[in-house]
Design brief:
Elements lengths: L7 H4 L3 H18 L4 H13 L3 H22 L6 H16 L5 H6 L5 H15 L15 H9 L1
Helix pairs in contact: 2-7, 3-7, 4-5
């Protein structure tokens, strides 16, 4: 059975590394709980530029595969083994959520998009983005305001 897309990387990451990433995220959220809305906005903009582990793996795989093709074309066809291995590992990651570079990237602090979004939405809550969604009676929510708060 294939793991859920949003859980597969964390399932294949050492629990100590997952815990360190979660602790680091909580510390950053705590740090920004005493900062101005402007500073929180700047942090959210940094999060928008942060590379998640999927992007890092895609970059790594494409760079290695491209290198293997170039080396095969210019030096020796045996270099085609490299893109073959890389695409196999990428396929394994797509289906199972694990591949050889994953533990290294996670130890380096690369987070999943869900982990990045967790920090993003906690910061938006600190900034007050979601307060305007709930109506005065506390029952009805404004869908346009909810979309706008999520989009910011």
């Amino acid at each position: 059975m294939l793991p859920a897309t949003n859980q597969r990387v964390e399932m294949h990451t050492c629990e100590a590394v997952n815990q360190r990433i979660a602790d680091d995220t909580r510390q950053r959220i705590s740090h920004f709980s005493t900062r101005s809305p402007h500073q929180i906005t700047q942090r959210i903009e940094e999060l928008d530029r942060e590379w998640d582990v999927e992007r890092a793996l895609e970059f790594n795989a494409s760079a290695l595969a491209f290198t293997g093709v170039i080396l095969a074309a210019t030096h020796n066809r045996k270099w085609l083994i490299l893109p073959g291995l890389v695409t196999g590992f990428l396929f394994q990651h797509a289906t199972q959520g694990w591949c050889p570079p994953l533990p290294i990237l996670r130890r380096l602090g690369f987070r999943t998009s869900a982990e990045i979004n967790e920090e993003r939405y906690a910061l938006k809550a600190l900034r007050g983005d979601f307060e305007r969604i709930i109506s005065k009676d506390g029952i009805h929510a404004d869908p346009q305001a909810a979309f706008a708060a999520a989009e910011q």
